[in-house]
Design goal:
Blueprint (H helix, E strand, L loop, with lengths): L10 E5 L1 H4 L2 E3 L3 E5 L3 H8 L8 E3 L19 E3 L1 E3 L5 H6 L1 H4 L6 E4 L11 H17 L3 E4 L15 H18 L4 E3 L3 H4 L22 H15 L32 E6 L3 E6 L11 E10 L5 E9 L7 E6 L16 E5 L4 E2 L8 E8 L6 E13 L6
Parallel strand pairs: 1-6, 1-7, 3-14, 7-8, 8-9
Antiparallel strand pairs: 2-3, 4-5, 10-18, 11-17, 12-15, 12-16, 12-18, 13-14, 13-17
Helix pairs in contact: 2-8, 5-6
GO molecular function, one term: hydrolase activity, acting on ester bonds
InterPro entries: Ester_Hydrolysis_Enzymes (IPR051532), SGNH_hydro (IPR013830), SGNH_hydro_sf (IPR036514)
Organism: Rhizobium wenxiniae
Length: 389
């Protein structure tokens, strides 16, 4: 059955580390990443687009990052990225993937094959993946092979020529298949002045993967692109009387404060948002979201929304968690003005009964000028259990 109007709230992403790195988790937390292009698409669409995930420490066979036995991604949901995988390994995961509920899927495959497989093999596997998804009634957005820096693909090497050929094959495939499209993330990634098609300076941390600046650029382009594919949704409005009530309104807003003007003057600050929150009960899943307007500033290293369960075994959920290098250095945010909505993954409250807490975490370079951020429409409320039965 053809899907003509995919839900903006159920966007899936499939692929390699370029997809997996939109989220990261461990035993006690789950976050959308500031290096993630889908993370930024969610933010810059003002929360209209959503790729939902939830904490999950399980290790499904074939889903281990970089094929490391026993290692978990620490999340499930609609991010189907697994680092290190070749296209054939991605194809093998399709049966499990198709057990999930989504209409639209953005597909990355073949980047890890470029130095070991022929261009025909890569293109054919990409076509089979897309065909399987289309046959299941999904709208498919193909991502071209992402260009790399010369430290990973030699200048003028065969990989660049193969990538261009494969990407033309994807354009032709999409043109001949209903509900299949191409989003060219290279259009926001590649420096047109680069002789060898390298990404813009600062867009990648290693010549292959995204830094924060690269994720922002591609995420902004993707949010604009999906405006033409997914339907509009109503503007998010928070009536002041929509308050949590365990009897009459158990899905109401838990926040006691609906807006804040925050100014960060030190290098790193956490601003408490929402005032004193109500505890809706152990086992309840919570989701937080707020609107944010950030002025242009040269020294921003991080802006994150963090929902914390302060119970003994409580966890944290974070939106736009900072991306750090191996030495701990934080990759910079864009210098431009931007606004959108920050929404961490949903958080399940553990036993304890202590009220959850909501923070806006801001990191600036040492010695930088103050940063004023407008935060509004703070919404924290119970949501349905995201775990499939």
């Amino acid at each position: 059955m053809s899907v003509s109007h995919p839900r903006a709230s159920r966007i899936a992403v499939l692929g390699t580390s370029l997809v997996q790195q939109n989220h990261f988790g461990n035993e006690t937390s789950l976050a959308t990443s500031a290096r993630g292009w889908m993370s930024w698409a969610e933010v810059l669409s003002h929360g209209r687009l959503s790729c939902p995930v939830h904490h999950d420490p399980s290790v499904p066979p074939g889903w281990e990052p970089s094929n490391r036995p026993g290692v978990s991604r620490f999340f499930s949901g609609l991010n189907f990225g697994v680092s290190g995988q070749k296209a054939i390994e991605i194809e093998r995961r399709l049966p499990r993937l198709l057990q999930s509920d989504f209409d639209l899927i953005v597909v990355d495959a073949g980047t890890n094959d470029m130095m070991v497989e022929t261009r025909q093999t890569i293109a054919n596997t990409r076509a089979r993946i897309a065909s399987t998804l289309l046959a299941a009634g999904k709208t498919v957005i193909l991502l071209p092979i992402l260009a790399r820096g010369i430290e990973k693909w030699p200048a003028g090497g065969a990989e660049r020529a193969k990538a261009h050929w494969i990407n033309r094959q994807s354009i032709e495939f999409a043109a001949s298949h209903a509900n299949c499209h191409v989003f060219d993330w290279n259009s926001a990634w590649v420096d047109p002045e680069s002789e060898f098609g390298e990404p813009y300076a600062g867009y990648s941390n290693d010549g292959t993967h995204f830094s924060v600046l690269g994720g922002f650029a591609v995420g902004k382009a993707l949010a604009d692109y999906l405006e033409t594919i997914v339907p509009r949704v109503p503007t998010r409005i928070l009536p002041r009387d929509d308050r949590f009530d365990p009897v009459n309104n158990p899905l109401g807003n838990l926040a006691s404060d609906l807006g804040a003007e925050t100014t960060t003057e030190k290098e790193q600050q956490s601003h408490s948002l929402g005032g004193k929150l109500v505890h809706p009960g152990t086992g309840v899943w919570l989701e937080a979201i707020c609107d944010i307007d950030v002025p242009a500033h040269d020294d921003v290293l991080g802006i994150s929304l963090r929902l914390k369960d302060v119970a003994a075994e409580g966890q944290e959920a974070i939106a736009l968690a900072p991306f750090r290098a191996e030495d701990g250095a934080v990759f910079a945010f864009p210098h431009t003005q931007w606004k959108g909505a920050l929404r961490p993954p949903p958080l399940k409250l553990r036993p304890g009964g202590t009220q959850p807490e909501l923070y806006l975490d801001v990191i600036l370079r040492p010695g930088s000028k103050p940063l004023g951020i407008d935060v509004s429409r703070i919404d924290i409320r119970p949501v349905s259990n995201p775990v499939r039965a």
